[in-house]
Structure formats: C-alpha cells, structure tokens
Amino acid sequence: MNYPQVTILIPIRNVAKYIGACLDALMSQTYPADKYEVWLLDNHSDDGTLEIAKKYSANRVKVIQIGAHSPPIKYNKVLPQITSEIIGFVDGDANVDRDWLRLVVEALEDPKVAGASGLILTENKGNLMARIIGYELQDRYERMPKEITRVATMHVVYKKAVLEEIGGFNESLKTGYDGEVGYRIKRAGYKIINILEAKVWHNHRATLWGFFKQQYEYGKFAIIRYLKIPKMMKGDEVTSFWMISQPLFYLAALIFLLMHLIFKTSIWLIFAPLIILLASYIYSAVRISLKYRDITAMFLIVIYIIRVWGWSLGATMAIPSLFKSKK
After folding, report:
1. Does position 327 have pLDDT exceeding 60, yes or no?
2. pLDDT tens, 221-258?
3. Sign of dihedral through CA atoms 300, 301, 304, 307?
4. Which residues contact 36 (CB under 8 A, 6 or more apart)?
5. 150: exposed, middle or buried (Cβ count in 10 Å: 0-12, 13-18, 19+)
6. Which residues contact 43 (CB under 8 A, 6 or more apart)?
7. Exposed e or buried b per residue across 24-62, where buried means at least 16 C-beta atoms within 10 angstroms of its C-beta
8. What is the pLDDT of residues 169-179, one digit of tens each?
C-alpha cells in the first residue's frame, strides 16, 4: 500500500499524567514514521503537560496553543492548515495499539469508506469504577457490525476531503459532536468501518461523581443533536434506542405518581416502568459479569441508574435555553 500522509489531532488540557504514554504509543506505530505527525491542540496547560510534550518535538509532535474552545471548534480551526489526506483523532488520555494507525488507514482504501475506528479497552482497570464502565463500553463495541453509523473521536481517522465536504464539526455541540458528524458522513453517502483489531486503551472516569458529570453534559447536548438530526433518536450501534428511551420510563413513573395522587389510580402503575428498567439492568449486569468473569461488573446496575439520571437532568436543564434561542 502507498500509505498516505496522516495528521493526528489531540485536544489537551493538563494531561501530564497521561500524555507521555499516549505519545509513546503514537511514536511506536508500525505505520511509516515519515508519513504521520501529531498535533497537540493545547488549552494553556500548566501542569507540566507541555514540558513532557517538548521531549517529543523532534519526533513529529507539534504543539498548537488554541485556547479555551470545545474540541469541535479546535478541530475546525486547524482543519484548513492540514495538508494531509487523512486526519486522525485521539484523546490525550488514550494509549493506542502499535498497529492501530496502519489498520485504520488501510480501511480507507475503499473510496466509499470515509472513516475507521476500532475496539475501546480500559487502561485504568485497577480502578473499580473505570473497570466497570470499561466492561460495558467494550461489550458494546465488540458487538458492533463491520459498518457503523458513527464512532467516538477518542480514536478514529477520517478523510479530510469528506470532513470538508460535510462542513466540518458542529461547533454548537460540546459533547456528542463525534456522533453527529458520523450521521452527516453517512447521509453524504460514505461509510465508517469498525475494525476490532485496531485497539485503544482509554482512561475512563474513576469516580461516581465524575461519571455523573460526564453523563450530565451528554444529556445537555443530546437535545440539540436530536433537533438537528431527528434520526439520531432511533439509536445506532454505539447508543441503542433502548438506552435513549430509558429516561422516558422515569417520566412515566412520575406521570403515574401524579395520576395516583389526583385520580387515585393503582400505585403499582408507578413501579411498573421502574421494575422493567431494573430487570433490564440486572440482566445486562449478569451477562457482562459472566462474559468477562468478574463479579464486580454487577456494579453496572448503579452505573446504569446514574447514567440515565445524568442524561435526564442534563436534558431537562437544556430545555429552557432552547426556548430562549428560538425567541
């Protein structure tokens, strides 16, 4: 294969704990060394991140001070400066397999394939929260088909020409922009490929509070995504319709509670949607516990509850701003 030039973008802010391992992995790729470079899109890190990055300057690593912008704004700002045919996206706390870049770029030989990604594994498995979150995410990615609708930018490559064709990333989205851009790529007639052999180890949230805040942000911007692309509400290979619909079960329980207080309807109606959710959580947790042979995966029941409450609260808090923007 005549390997094309690749520019890998990494948005960073105070990731001194992770950036060394991330860059070591990227500098050790089996992809031809003269065919790729790494751009660190920094938001004025002050924890030693830049000092670590400077050690790699001779190895095709470039630091760009780009300010306090969301990742999609950062990406769109540097997109015109990139001369490479392929653009890669990696998180600053991720550690890619040494064959990652070669595998994902080779998938782009097909003119109809615009992007490629792979399997997400857990780097910080020693932490209970991170390990459990990782099991659930890994399980979803392992069950995805070859052709997918979208993928997270924690590790993915896209053809620059296709990103330009669809207008780049949606700057109104702080989270979920990677999913939204995937839908526009597919709508333009291109494919995104899932390659399980292309692996990345990611550092997941290590506390319940950190996980809740992350899911809250997802919920806040989900409403904007669904208004722009209603088709996203049907779900996809990463986030199924069942996952998206779960906040409605809590809403149903609330409605049944009000009906019980006002019209004295059966109290069991209140608990019915909650029992359905709990049963699904238990089934999923048991299945994943058996799959990965780790009883601690039963803690996923708590993770599922926190996730749906984070989504619900975030979406609820976003609704008033949507009405203001329409005035």
Report:
1. no
2. 998 888 888 989 999 999 999 999 999 999 999 999 99
3. negative
4. 5, 6, 7, 8, 29, 60, 84, 88, 101
5. buried
6. 11, 12, 13, 66, 67, 68, 69
7. ebbeebebeeebbbbbbbbeebeeebbebbeebeeebbe
8. 999 898 889 98
